[in-house]
Specification:
alpha/beta, 3-stranded parallel beta sheet, 242 residues, 10 strands, 5-stranded parallel beta sheet
């Protein structure tokens, strides 16, 4: 079984309360730590990589993002999916080629740009081109930004999800959806659903998210921020010893 086949299989046949948990490494060291902990796959966060490279979220040059993803992929043996924001304006064929060059088996693609939602039908057409260019070589996670940048209407999210699944998306990601609307979203969305979880204990636990119908869980730049806090505590301790 290829890595992309293994990655795709991880999203299906999961029991309620047992979501696929994908840590978000931002470099080779963090990737190795996550893989050595036993996670079966990883998902790079664009915001985490941006911070590690000294950029604001959303402003990482594409060449730097693809190079960072490639370093993560080379560091581990498990499948890696890459958050490549809204595709950086690349044509679908070039985007797919560059992703495959990194060794990534999947990608996260947003339906907003600069805080503005894209037309859902136009975005679905673009996703269909990505799917056609990738064939079965990439797992496409279509992020839905109606809760992040829209009016937060669950029905609008469900409508976008239907368009994106019809276009060939393997999974949809209604980022920022409140826990109380997850059952409604789950009932109206076909296929796997990705949700974001926090590491500070706020919100539903990973098990609870799974019981609400979430298939897979990612953390955005949460791991990098938690690591930065630990480093800050250590450096404060060192300074206190002087």
């Amino acid at each position: 079984m290829s890595k992309v086949e293994a990655f795709r299989a991880l999203h299906h046949g999961r029991l309620p309360g047992d979501p696929l948990v994908l840590p978000g490494p931002w470099d080779a060291v963090s990737a190795r730590v996550c893989a050595e902990a036993g996670f079966p796959a990883l998902a790079t966060p664009s915001a985490g990589i941006a911070a590690s490279l000294g950029h604001e979220d959303g402003s990482t040059p594409p060449d730097e993002m693809f190079a960072a993803v490639a370093r993560v992929v080379r560091a581990v043996d498990v499948p890696v999916s890459a958050d490549v924001e809204d595709g950086y304006g690349l044509a679908p064929k070039e985007l797919v080629e560059r992703l495959l060059e990194t060794g990534a088996v999947g990608c996260n693609l947003e339906d907003s740009h600069g805080g503005e939602l894209k037309d859902p039908r136009e975005h679905a057409d673009w996703l269909a081109e990505v799917r056609a260019a990738a064939g079965d070589l990439l797992f496409v996670n279509a992020r839905i930004d109606t809760f992040a940048h829209g009016d937060g209407d669950p029905e609008r999210a469900i409508e976008r999800a239907a368009l994106y699944v019809a276009a060939g998306a393997d999974c949809v990601y209604p980022i920022g959806a409140p826990a109380d609307v997850l059952p409604l979203l789950r009932s109206g969305i076909q296929g796997p659903v990705n949700m974001h979880a926090r590491l500070d204990g706020a919100g539903p636990s990973l098990t609870e998210l799974g019981e609400l119908g979430v298939t897979r869980i990612t953390f955005g730049p949460g791991l990098l921020r938690r690591s930065a806090q630990a480093l800050r505590a250590t450096t404060d301790e060192l300074r206190g010893q002087r």
